[in-house]
Design brief:
The protein is mainly alpha-helical and about 230 residues long. Helix 6 packs parallel to helix 7. The chain has 2 domains: about 100 residues; about 130 residues, Four Helix Bundle (Hemerythrin (Met), subunit A), CATH 1.20.120. About 70% of the residues lie in helices and about 0% in strands. This is DUF4145 domain-containing protein.
Length: about 230
C-alpha cells in the first residue's frame, strides 16, 4: 500500500478511537431506550460530531475521489437514533476490518494509478503544445521524472520488508539509488534498470538546466516508456 508507516499507524489509531467513541455512544443511547426514553435529541450534538469524524476519515481514505461515496451516502441516511448510531458504528467497524485485512489496498492503488495517468496526460499536452527548438519539452521531462520517482518510491514501500527511502546519512535516496535498490531486490532486471537510469539522467539534466544533454525525442520516448512502466508495476 502506498502509505507511509506513520500514516498507516495514524489511520489505524483513528479507526480505533472512533470505534471506542461509537461503542460508548451506542451503549448510552441503548440505556435511554431501555428506560423508555425515546426522545434521544440530547445525544444530537454528540451523534453529529461522531458522524462528522467518521465522514472525515472516509473522505481522507478516498483522497476525495468519491470511491467511497456510497458509504458516505449511507452514513448521512442514518438519523440520530439508537439504530442510526449502531448502524454508523457497524460501518466504521466494517471499514476498519477491511483496512486491517488489506481489502482497501486495490482502491489506493487504482487512485494512485489514476493520478499518475493524469500527470502523464499533462506532460503529453506540454509536448504537443510546445514548439521545437524552444526547450518547451523541458517542463514535460521534469514532470515525467517526478512521476517516475514517486512510482519508484511506492514500489520500495510495497516490498517486504519495505526498502528504506533514506540513505544511511539520513538524506533521501535519489532516482538512481531507488533503481539500484529495486534491482537488487529482484523487482526488475538490469535491462529495465538501464532504461530507468536513462530516464533519470534526462530528468536530472532537465532539472539542472543541462538542456543540451537531451532532446525532445528523448522526452517523447521517456513519456511512452514511463507510461508502460506504470502499467507494468503500479
Amino acid at each position: 500500500m502506498p502509505l507511509t508507516p506513520q500514516i498507516d499507524k495514524d489511520i489505524r489509531a483513528r479507526f480505533k478511537s472512533l470505534q471506542a467513541k461509537g461503542t460508548d455512544l451506542v451503549q448510552r443511547m441503548k440505556q435511554e431506550v431501555r428506560h423508555n426514553v425515546y426522545d434521544l435529541t440530547s445525544f444530537g450534538d454528540e451523534y453529529f460530531a461522531f458522524r462528522t469524524s467518521c465522514v472525515t476519515l472516509i473522505e481522507y481514505l478516498s483522497h476525495g475521489s468519491g470511491r467511497l461515496a456510497n458509504v458516505v451516502k449511507e452514513i448521512y441516511e442514518q438519523g440520530e437514533t439508537y439504530l442510526g448510531a449502531r448502524a454508523l458504528l457497524g460501518i466504521i467497524c466494517g471499514l476498519s476490518d477491511d483496512y486491517d485485512n488489506g481489502l482497501l489496498d486495490s482502491m489506493f492503488a487504482r487512485m494512485e494509478a489514476e493520478i499518475a495517468a493524469d500527470y502523464l496526460g499533462q506532460a503529453e499536452a506540454l509536448l504537443k503544445e510546445g514548439q521545437p527548438g524552444k526547450h518547451d519539452h523541458v517542463p514535460a521531462a521534469v514532470l515525467i521524472g517526478a512521476i517516475l520517482e514517486k512510482t519508484l518510491r511506492d514500489l520500495c514501500r510495497r516490498q517486504s520488508p519495505p526498502i528504506p527511502l533514506v540513505t544511511p546519512a539520513g538524506g533521501p535516496k535519489m532516482l538512481n539509488g531507488l533503481i539500484d535498490e529495486l534491482k537488487k531486490a529482484g523487482v526488475f532486471n538490469e535491462l529495465r534498470a538501464k532504461q530507468l537510469r536513462h530516464w533519470a539522467d534526462v530528468r536530472n539534466a532537465a532539472a539542472h538546466g543541462d538542456f543540451e544533454k537531451f532532446t525532445r525525442a528523448d522526452v517523447d520516448s521517456m513519456l511512452s516508456g514511463v507510461g508502460q512502466f506504470l502499467a507494468d508495476y503500479s
